[in-house]
């Protein structure tokens, strides 16, 4: 399973045409991905048949949010659901860079029957494996996007494997950040994870400002099969 980041409608169409399995819809790539606009979500869902997961992130300052920001995020989740998104992508930490269980529960309270990916906020936590245990308590969290912590994703294979084991099949892990056609097979084979997430790896010149190269998407899809 290959999930590809889309930042514009043309990306969305190219990803599906090239055989990508799922789309993560974002704005502001250079800030790590923020919530896309209403119209972008609407037009994207209408344009393709593959599932779209919508980023819910109001700013790039941190993964800690005020009560007002949490309310904004809840409204954005409701909008994404109404527009037909297959899922949302979110994460929330407290001031100590730990999972903010109370605020996560608040966000999840408006989720109704769609997927929820807890994003790479988990990689900012001291112990991603322990964080995985905590996230398992939340039935609405279906996926976790992770690079197994800070640093190089290949170096984090032991952590990713431990997270996959801890998931017990209840949460689907998606390995992302630094995934390339050169390392994706090793990452999936050695961790037991079956889903990969890419951004610049499938863009011309590996730049977030470049177009998606369908050949690179197809190549990765074939490797993962």
UniProtKB/TrEMBL annotation:
InterPro entries: CutC-like, CutC-like_dom_sf
UniProt key word Cell membrane: no
Major location (coarse): cytoplasm
CC terms in the record's Gene Ontology section: cytoplasm
Keyword set, alphabetical order: Cytoplasm
Subcellular location: Cytoplasm
Molecular function terms from GO: copper ion binding
TM ranges: none
Family note: Belongs to the CutC family.
HAMAP family hit by this protein: CutC
Protein name: PF03932 family protein CutC
Native species: Bacillus cereus
């Amino acid at each position: 399973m290959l999930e590809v980041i889309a930042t514009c409608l043309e990306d969305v169409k190219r990803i599906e045409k090239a055989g990508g399995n799922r789309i993560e819809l974002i704005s502001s790539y250079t800030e790590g991905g923020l919530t896309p606009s209403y119209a972008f979500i609407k037009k994207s869902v209408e344009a393709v048949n593959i599932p779209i997961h919508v980023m819910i992130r109001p700013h790039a300052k941190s993964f800690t949010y005020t009560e007002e920001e949490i309310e904004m995020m809840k409204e954005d989740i409701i909008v994404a659901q109404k527009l037909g998104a297959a899922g949302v992508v979110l994460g929330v930490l407290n001031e100590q860079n730990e999972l903010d269980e109370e605020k996560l529960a608040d966000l999840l309270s408006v989720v109704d029957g769609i997927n929820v990916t807890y994003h790479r906020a988990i990689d900012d936590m001291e112990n991603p494996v322990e964080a995985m245990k905590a996230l398992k308590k939340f039935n609405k969290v279906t996926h976790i996007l992770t690079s197994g912590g800070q640093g190089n994703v290949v170096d984090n294979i032991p952590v990713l494997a431990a997270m996959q084991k801890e998931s017990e099949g209840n949460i689907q892990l998606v390995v992302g950040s630094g995934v390339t056609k050169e390392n994706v097979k090793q990452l999936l084979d050695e961790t037991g994870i079956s889903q990969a997430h890419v951004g610049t790896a499938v863009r011309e010149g590996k730049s977030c400002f470049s177009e998606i190269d369908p050949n690179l998407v197809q190549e990765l899809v074939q490797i993962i099969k």
